[in-house]
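Page header: ASSEMBLY MODEL / eight components / 1816 residues total.
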Amino acid sequence: MDPTDPRTHDLGFARVDVDRAARTGDPEVVLGQGKRPEQVVALLRTLHERHPDRMVLATRLGPEALDLVAGELPDAHVDEVARAATLGPPPAPRGRVLVVAAGTSDAPVAAEAALSVAAHGAGVARIDDVGVAGLHRLLAVRDELAAADALVVVAGMEGALPSVVGGLVGVPLVAVPTSIGYGASLGGVSALLGMLNSCAPGIGVVNIDNGYGAGVLAARIARQSAR
Amino acid sequence: MDPTDPRTHDLGFARVDVDRAARTGDPEVVLGQGKRPEQVVALLRTLHERHPDRMVLATRLGPEALDLVAGELPDAHVDEVARAATLGPPPAPRGRVLVVAAGTSDAPVAAEAALSVAAHGAGVARIDDVGVAGLHRLLAVRDELAAADALVVVAGMEGALPSVVGGLVGVPLVAVPTSIGYGASLGGVSALLGMLNSCAPGIGVVNIDNGYGAGVLAARIARQSAR
Amino acid sequence: MDPTDPRTHDLGFARVDVDRAARTGDPEVVLGQGKRPEQVVALLRTLHERHPDRMVLATRLGPEALDLVAGELPDAHVDEVARAATLGPPPAPRGRVLVVAAGTSDAPVAAEAALSVAAHGAGVARIDDVGVAGLHRLLAVRDELAAADALVVVAGMEGALPSVVGGLVGVPLVAVPTSIGYGASLGGVSALLGMLNSCAPGIGVVNIDNGYGAGVLAARIARQSAR
Amino acid sequence: MDPTDPRTHDLGFARVDVDRAARTGDPEVVLGQGKRPEQVVALLRTLHERHPDRMVLATRLGPEALDLVAGELPDAHVDEVARAATLGPPPAPRGRVLVVAAGTSDAPVAAEAALSVAAHGAGVARIDDVGVAGLHRLLAVRDELAAADALVVVAGMEGALPSVVGGLVGVPLVAVPTSIGYGASLGGVSALLGMLNSCAPGIGVVNIDNGYGAGVLAARIARQSAR
Amino acid sequence: MDPTDPRTHDLGFARVDVDRAARTGDPEVVLGQGKRPEQVVALLRTLHERHPDRMVLATRLGPEALDLVAGELPDAHVDEVARAATLGPPPAPRGRVLVVAAGTSDAPVAAEAALSVAAHGAGVARIDDVGVAGLHRLLAVRDELAAADALVVVAGMEGALPSVVGGLVGVPLVAVPTSIGYGASLGGVSALLGMLNSCAPGIGVVNIDNGYGAGVLAARIARQSAR
Amino acid sequence: MDPTDPRTHDLGFARVDVDRAARTGDPEVVLGQGKRPEQVVALLRTLHERHPDRMVLATRLGPEALDLVAGELPDAHVDEVARAATLGPPPAPRGRVLVVAAGTSDAPVAAEAALSVAAHGAGVARIDDVGVAGLHRLLAVRDELAAADALVVVAGMEGALPSVVGGLVGVPLVAVPTSIGYGASLGGVSALLGMLNSCAPGIGVVNIDNGYGAGVLAARIARQSAR
Amino acid sequence: MDPTDPRTHDLGFARVDVDRAARTGDPEVVLGQGKRPEQVVALLRTLHERHPDRMVLATRLGPEALDLVAGELPDAHVDEVARAATLGPPPAPRGRVLVVAAGTSDAPVAAEAALSVAAHGAGVARIDDVGVAGLHRLLAVRDELAAADALVVVAGMEGALPSVVGGLVGVPLVAVPTSIGYGASLGGVSALLGMLNSCAPGIGVVNIDNGYGAGVLAARIARQSAR
Amino acid sequence: MDPTDPRTHDLGFARVDVDRAARTGDPEVVLGQGKRPEQVVALLRTLHERHPDRMVLATRLGPEALDLVAGELPDAHVDEVARAATLGPPPAPRGRVLVVAAGTSDAPVAAEAALSVAAHGAGVARIDDVGVAGLHRLLAVRDELAAADALVVVAGMEGALPSVVGGLVGVPLVAVPTSIGYGASLGGVSALLGMLNSCAPGIGVVNIDNGYGAGVLAARIARQSAR
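Prediction written out in full:
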């Protein structure tokens, strides 16, 4: 491998894909899980140096990583609820994403999704705690749902919210199952299966608790809807 | 074993539990699956002889069994959609059960549930095709839902209908997942998991496609609600 | 969304469904899992203010939440075995639910079920430690089982108790699998499957360890049986 | 329920949601699975009468249903590979979707996706047989991938194609796992899991073999990208 | 491999383990599943020639294999219910096994178990249709259960019968789950899990529908109990 | 329930089945899992008082329970490897059980099995570390295997040892899968499935890590083999 | 895509990867599953034209495809047991692979593996019916096992054979689980799990029934061992 | 068992298979999981005494075991990343293995594989962080891949890397799924399934996170390729 290939940047423990923004329009993101705090800091710093004009993102950070980022990178923005950090100015938002969550316990995943939307260049708003057991809360926001360029719908337990939202409006919808629940929720698998089997069409599903992936997809949809 | 025990009736291939009505208030029912058509006929006939005043029921009958029952037991009522047959007069209905189904493909299970309710002594009505992707259909029947003594809610795919119904009314609710779906529906397991993880409380779930079991439970609830 | 909608009450982190009692006859309940102790206290207080005449309930509370509730809400009743707390006077009981548990290790789930029954307006009694490996203990209480308006049957491991009880009496039966067991119990999935496949009809099953949901369903059945 | 409600149309066996186009921009589609051929014909005819200006679609049709549609509805277009039929003129296409398939055996699902895109108002093109074991075939079409408004990527077996495509371009991507494979493919579950766990972000996944759902989502994305 | 090794006998398509009786006390048995009818006949004939004094057994025979065995081996005994055939005189029975089955649909597995017991040298009796939903039928045979040297207990659905029997008597018990059931019975997996998690100790479980394996184990226990 | 029923003994938190020895020949055993240390001590003491002449057993004890038993019941014997404790003199051994384990990590389960055999009245010996990857170790003990009245065979990972032992000797064999392994061992499920699908007949399987259940079954077989 | 790219050959329904031999040393193989018989014939013919000097292979052919190949391609060799066909002369064999199978029912998979080895340029021999329940059959061929350059070990049910072989010799071993079995064999998943969890190291596992994949890997190992 | 059998060495708690090197060419390895630190030290010491001329290996060591090994065996080499230790000089390397890893989080498994290759007598090199979402990184090392005698390919999440590598080169390939991922990665099961279903042939898969087993197989292939 050619260490001078400008498309990669070798940190010793990692080979940063600095070419990704050229290929896909979005820079690489640091997945904090399984990485040591100092690796997170080094990766964030490297990505920031390569993309000084555009916010870079690190997700799935534990308390130690959040602390070290705050200490070592004073310009970083740390989001405790989303368990994430960013560095650099956000891109100008194009289009508008609405992040909808079923319950208060889904807040961390919804926050990660919203932050990821912003970091990937779309506008974002949130509506929380509109689970299907209280339909009037959801029906009250129908117009807001219909006005978005893309929806991110976050729910645990039986994961029914995307089906109901997808029957109300025809906006492109990204569904995020969460691991909220117990027993037969099987760590989020029940919500995941519910969303995959939705009787409403036009729903794309991401991995359990994957607010980040949902945010990227929704941002890409919203951005090009606004072009 | 004492072959003269009046609580059982030995047919050679089966030992009919003729005491069940005394213990539980309901006679034994013939589960047709895995039985030969002539066994179904013999069991129906025996149960009818022991319970001449009360409809007896056979479920999960294949085409051959339905035909043989119709031929051998001219007084039997055969329900092709429910894949079931009854013999004898229905009990006087007490209370009222509403059977609600999400899609047209759920009709066989809903029919089995409704027939089982009637055979177990409660009144029954049905509302079909009110899936969660078209909420206005469901909201239009909210008063009917609230007026029942018990609800049987039948749905396949993601199985979200019980959650939405359970958030609209506080009537005792029996949920029946069906095997309608494909791929990640896993033969009805996804709908089953969805119902078990419902965010609305007060929902009891039965086995996949088990309209019979749901009908028995709903009838028992409705009967005693009317006493 | 209209923040002045009287049907919801916005706490910032949660949107309380204060309309639920009007729709379903029962107020919303605080599911403590995944919520911070101070959120539990705030939610309990809000629900109590909206329903001062009727006991409100919080379940799945960890030790910290139980402590904070006891400290912050001196009028609350804390049930350490059920890992739950209530605030406000219990509704006058209508009808009678019997909670039956297979083993001593099932006590927390049985306690949660019993407390939920009481909070939802039905009378309640308990019978513990009557597993199927000692049938004489169960047969000795057959008359008590038959006299109830609804049964909640709690069991872990192979989950056979509902089948045996359901063969003894025809009372509406809510079965609760517990996560008690090891190895092939798969965290309660085996007990759940056993209950769903019961050869006795008329059994509604709830999620693993879901004493609360079982209590709500049983209370609703018992209440209307007594009207 | 009000039978004169203009938002539903009661066929006896089904309650057609003719209001869906008003809510979501797209008319209801007939899911042929589990329906009798004459039901399929009646539903297609009803939907066509309500939406004479816009193609309506029936999917998952068996040979008998395809034959009956061809016989009873001479104006219908029958697509044998996609196992689907349409009636009425296609909407004017807005935006452009590219349907990419890994192997020749994935053709039926890719064809269903492409037909669904067209019926939902977007332009569509296909690239087949570009599995990851022959990367040069995929790299040769990189520019075509990048030029689309939305991608539908269809693959069975290990389902790796979306990961590779998602690393090459940043176009919104809908991934469809297929049931092609054997043994540990578990009827498409392995491909589904592969796509959900993709290391490339921005991928929304639909149910196994669900070309229809993928087509609807991709068409919605492409349509609004062209507005 | 030495083709003259007296411990194996090469049939071209199979290498018969004629030494097995010397090692384990029991000759090899022909598992018919996956073998062609003429292979079954050849294997039965070979085993009979090597063990002329002792019944040899073929199990899991389809209709064609049963017919060919009957035609080609006139001395064979064909058991249509057990889907099995034997050749040669049964060993003198030592000890006594009781085969207990929960439902009439379990008869084929119970019959295979009983035949296997007899072929492996123990006496055998059967009690059928004593499922746990009718306890009086089981309690009526308690003395018979206690008098056996070994029990084979056969049940499908929730598989609760071994738990109840194992709580009534302390006889060595071999439990056989069957594939009888539907939906969440998962082809017998639920019954299997139920038996493995039994709250009664002293139960050994075999594969789903494996009457043969249970019969061998029970016969070995009974034989040595009588020595 | 009659609190004076001599067949049960009410401890407040538990109803001890003191009649079990009369029914099954063996007293009840304390399953420590899910019980508090002081409950374990109280149950052991009660069982000992009812069965002063016969060792009683408590299994699955955590470090705190082991310590409290040692402190509160000085006559108890504590087995740290087996995580178990006994109280009272062992019954005179009848027959002989051999406990065979595949690896050193299986020692706790093998120890629990051996202790359970002794507590249930049979003689016991152990052979450890004879996994199938080193067949000479197993072949060297073939005569010892053949001389036992019953075998308990303990193995984790692929669980192949019972198949190999069951092909060497015809002794009744109880197989115990253990949770030793990682990744695709799925907490012992792979070993369990391996044992259930053994190509050697005559093997009864118990739950994962259930040395106790295996010991009871093996002891019952050995005891009656010696009568 | 450039239709003149010499690395692919477009058949209309498929894009043949004729460059594969240059990249990997082996030509593409036709996987018959999911393809129509005439597609199989066209693909075999095309591959043969591109590789006239080297045998090309089609696997997983149904009876119709086997017949059409025999009729349309008279020079093809059809292997009914392996359900496969070849066209063209076999490569000169380098190195030696031994294919070992546990039972007679595993013959189709073993035959596919052996044919694949030959088509990929290594010598091959077979040993059948050496299951672990008759160890003497396996021990008798230990020297043959040790002399091979690579082993393919085929087994269904518990899949224990690779563990035992892998403990006897240190030859590179490719394990193939088969779908032979019933009940808890879960269509070969149990054998697959057994092989993945083998206590003997140095075993690579392929998909259930994937004799082809195992043959390719073993041939590559054997070929380079002989260079 | 003969304690003087030179093929085993009894440590009290374990029976070391010191004959393994004679049978398979490689000495036994200490699997640290489930063993106490002092057992690890004793086993390493014993194996080293028996194989003084050849490196012996202990894997899956926790921090305590790593510390005790370092303290008690000063000649040992401790690899913190691989969580492993070796004692004695490495064998002279024959042939060359390349260990390829998809992400930085896969480093511990890749390190275990590389160390195992070296301990089993082959040369080894590593390439890290070449996941399929950045193909240019992989294409840049194609020649290095093709030059190896065997490849170990390590990946978590969707596990697609072996498919892509196996389509680029025809080198014998051992695939190692890792437990890196979350949600639907199911602890590595998704990556495992992806590798088993690879559309590229010639891939042997080992257990999740089993770098050791992959290293042994790859070393054996490489060694004999160089003979």
